[in-house]
């Protein structure tokens, strides 16, 4: 007993001293970061943080201000910021979802009466509306009273609730104000397929649009759903019969305990940073959280301003010019004759023309960085020295060589001519060669058959003819088989180096005419396409070597003398 008498007064005095930090902490608000609005329309824009701090229990003011707290960014104290409570400068949008759940009739009447009395509308800066669908959003100011049909007569299924939440979240407009979504349900539980009430995509939309989800229910919700709602800045209010007004008043006070903290990070781009907010003369921070704006940044439809886009455009243009400068062809020929390999993987290296070269067979021994398929029979592509350059003759029929993207049998190489040898692309370089502008175009329209014996007697009207370019004379096909070539043994002789001795044949098969190529080295074309054999139609264009003619089934008939006779003139009575 003597022990208690001596130590009891000391214990009574020590208890308040030991509990004083806990008492002070309970008087102050427990802070929580509920939503973030990041102005992504401009780089280095303001960051808006929606905090829950409560009211100021001590002092002359009801709310905290910027003078009561200290903000630290990445450990640097005394960072400038502005702290303003929810009020006229920062409107609060509250949206109640319809229909309500299937509550008992007595509880439904209390809910209707509490909402109709305007418990949410005691402050002018609260914007209250009722959402039923995208087309049906009712402002509280325009509503006289809520009908009893606002309550659902049946239990809302999990699938219906999920679809209702998806549509309601989607209909919220993106803005800088804090938004609250309220729903009345008799019981709250997660879906059967998932333990959470919201999907990850819905959670992302809630964070992007600064929406706090609140549910008012008459049953005790699971702890998982309560933690999920609190992590999103919302919560659960449990209704008690006879105390519905007090429950809604509790929700209203919770929402009015929010503040808007505005600050500028001071850097460009979405960089995560550590934010610490604490009361002055206190060591323990009220809020300590890493802000990663890249994960919750809003999607704005506004374009970046001109002073941001213009430097990026100029920088991109300079990088393109630099890339072209580094990859430009380095043509250091120094007066030599040869080819520049234009394939990019060969780095535009120069290939000098060998001494005494007679054909392009030396390209088969060319070492390249990757394997390339070349044209076959390069030994048949002859190079003849002529006029300080080379005359190239291609004797191949298939897999031909292309010069300036065109097929050619005989061409005088000019400076900067492009040769396609299969997959290998070469640029001919010869300073002494004539330029391409002075190249004489090959004459293709003056090759006509050698005049021969004219057919005896009149021709039948259905006899087809060949009309060669550069000649007004028509050459009839009076035989069932007509051979064409440069040799004199042919029925139709064409004196040209591009025409083979026995080049083509036109045969009559039944009532139709067929064109057939007979040369293995030269080509025959019909209407611009190389063919082996093809039936002819009226008006077809035939190319045999460098001779071009047109096949006609109906000959042009000269005007008869009888048609030129004048009609007798009858005199008037």
Q: Distance between the terminal alpha carbons, to the nearest Å?
A: 170 Å
Structural class: alpha+beta
User: Can you give the mean pLDDT?
Assistant: 78
Radius of gyration: 47 Å
Give the % helix: 10-25%
- Give a quick account of the main beta sheet: strands, pairing sense, barrel closure: 6 strands, mixed
User: In total, how many beta strands?
Assistant: 33
- Please state the overall shape, judged from the principal axes of the Cα atoms: elongated
Q: Strand portion, in percent? A: 25-35%
Number of helices: 9
Q: Which spans have pLDDT < 50 for at least 5 consecutive residues?
A: 1-5, 11-29, 297-304, 441-445, 559-567, 569-573
Strand order of the largest sheet: 7-6-5-8-9-10
Note down, in words, how this protein is organized.
With 573 residues, the protein is of the alpha+beta class. 20% of the residues lie in helices and 27% in strands. The chain is built from 9 helices and 33 strands. The strands form 7 sheets. It has a 6-stranded mixed beta sheet, sandwiched between helices. The protein has a 6-stranded antiparallel beta sheet with strand order 15-14-22-21-18-19, with no helix packed on it. Strands 24-23-33-32-29-30 form a 6-stranded antiparallel beta sheet, with no helix packed on it. The N and C termini lie far apart (170 Å). The model is unreliable at 1-5, 11-29, 297-304, 441-445, 559-567 and 569-573 (pLDDT under 50).
